[in-house]
Amino acid sequence: MSKVALILGVGGQDGAYLTKLLLAKGYEIHGTSRDDQVRAFDSLQSLGIRDQIRTHSLSLNDFRSVFRVLRKVRPDEIYNLAGQSSVGLSFDQPVETFESIAVGTLNILECLKMLEHPAKLFNAGSSECFGNTPEPANESTPFHPRSPYAAAKAASFWTVANYREAYNLHACSGILFNHESPLRPQRFVTRKIVSTAVRIANGQQRERLRLGNISIHRDWGWAPEYVDAMWRVLQHETPEDFVIATGHSASLKEFVAEVFRAVGLDWSKHVDVDSGLFRPSEIDRSVGNPDKARTLLNWKASMTMPDIATALVSSELARVSAVQPA
Ligand SMILES: C[C@H]1O[C@H](OP(=O)(O)OP(=O)(O)OC[C@H]2O[C@@H](n3cnc4c(=O)[nH]c(N)nc43)[C@H](O)[C@@H]2O)[C@@H](O)[C@@H](O)C1=O
């Protein structure tokens, strides 16, 4: 009998790559979105796997809807990838962010307590919880959230840990550092940079790339590798939390330079820094220490920033040439 996985927030970048990975492992996949009749599931479509899963409508803030889907699907493994995922947007929509992430996670945990069918839970945590990391952060580094998103992720992390200890649930968080792919929406900086650079290289010479703070440093990884880490977290015998990172940090300016180099342009001639795009509070430097995942899960990121920039540019060039008439 194949294992059953329930992916909450299946329509996003991570949901699509995780679906692909678990299908290849023989899982039966159920995925949720707020309204599965309305959502186009473009990411699943672009990977050619939309028809291979069953979808359900589920709002994490509505306890009854979570309970109904969990009771119906009876999953062996649940992956919580739902909730508002943009740090920038969380400054404008703090309540929606907090409710979808913190209350949403609490609703899943409460349902797990009540259900007779035992299921393992993976919760998508975030490196945002650490705030600035002068030294690479590991699983015992204290949290210092610097955005409403980070505060909500910290609340969900500690709720998962508490329910694991109090009720003996197999529930874990992966503390995920930034992870990118061609499925990232434009709202995130890597996709914004790559698609603008490709448009400029393809002839839109007058277009300018407007960015906020480009001196920040991030530990950028490759999303398809991070969903493999999520799966490994749940296969580990004991429920534990893991930092998922590359261990390397690069500045946004270096990322921009790498992308423009890949399309044959000098970035400094095409980029404007706009202080209106700066966040009210920012993480200047973010880097993780993935030693625990390497040792206990046998997981290691193989792609770091330069490989990621090049891969994103190749994918965008291919996408654009596929939609342009010959
Ligand atoms: C780990 C964490 O990773 C992601 O959150 P994020 O790091 O905020 O991602 P981002 O791509 O929005 O920003 C990256 C950096 O780039 C700076 N930046 C400059 N100029 C622009 C700009 O124009 N747009 C954006 N979006 N950012 C800009 C911005 O200020 C920030 O310092 C999510 O997956 C999140 O879910 C998550 O958990």
Short key terms for the protein model shown above:
globular, alpha/beta, seven-stranded parallel sheet, binds ligand F7E, 326 residues, single chain, UDP-galactose 4-epimerase, domain 1, two-stranded parallel ribbon, Rossmann fold, 13 strands, 2 domains, 11 helices
> Low-confidence parts, pLDDT < 50 over ≥5 residues?
none
* CATH architecture descriptor name of the largest domain: 3-Layer(aba) Sandwich
Apparent shape? globular
Widest beta sheet: strand line-up? 3-2-1-4-5-6-11
Number of helices: 11
Oligomer class: single chain
Mean pLDDT: 96
**Structural class based on helices, strands and sheet pairing:** alpha/beta
- The share of residues in helices is 40-55%
Strand content: 15-25%
The overall strand count is: 13
- What is the CATH topology classification name of the largest domain? Rossmann fold
What is the assigned CATH homologous superfamily of the largest domain? Answer: NAD(P)-binding Rossmann-like Domain
Bound molecules: the ligand C[C@H]1O[C@H](OP(=O)(O)OP(=O)(O)OC[C@H]2O[C@@H](n3cnc4c(=O)[nH]c(N)nc43)[C@H](O)[C@@H]2O)[C@@H](O)[C@@H](O)C1=O
Measured between the Cα atoms of the first and last residue, the distance is 48 Å
Task: Give the number of domains.
Answer: 2
The radius of gyration computed from the alpha-carbon positions, rounded to a whole number of angstroms, is 20 Å
Write the H/E string, N to C: EHEHEHEHHEHEEHEEEHEEHEHH
Pfam families: GDP_Man_Dehyd
Family: Belongs to the NAD(P)-dependent epimerase/dehydratase family. GDP-mannose 4,6-dehydratase subfamily.
EC number: 4.2.1.47
InterPro entries: GDP_Man_deHydtase (IPR006368), NAD(P)-bd_dom (IPR016040), NAD(P)-bd_dom_sf (IPR036291)
